[in-house]
Design goal:
Blueprint: H1 7-22, H2 25-33, H3 48-54, H4 58-66, H5 81-87, H6 91-99, H7 111-117, H8 121-129
Helix pairs in contact: 1-2, 1-3, 2-4, 3-4, 3-5, 4-6, 5-6, 5-7, 7-8
Length: 130
Amino acid sequence: MSEELDAETLAFAHRMFDLARAGATDDLAGYVDAGLPVNLTNDKGDTLLILAAYHARPDTVAALLARGADHTRANDRGQTALAAAVFRSSADGVRALLDAGADPEHGNPSAVDTARFFDLPEMLALLRTG
């Protein structure tokens, strides 16, 4: 049985996702440190980490990883934070995710598939060398 969230709770969650997109690292980290679930997920399966990676916010990616964000989670389309960082050619985000143990072959499409499909040789080289 699913429970509906009240408007105030939904508005708060939307603000947290906006912080991840905007790269408001200190604010978002403060909320996580105060108890916000680091793996909070929106209605599309995007985690805070995936959104930060997709919007090329490597400092936010690193802060979320340091707080235990799950880099293996994929959204409803099978995309991971690593694939998102590759798509955006965010070398620092890719490095942070690889350093945390993210698998370049995980997801559908995987980070490797993403680099190949979008012809991103620098990202493919980074995935290979870590």
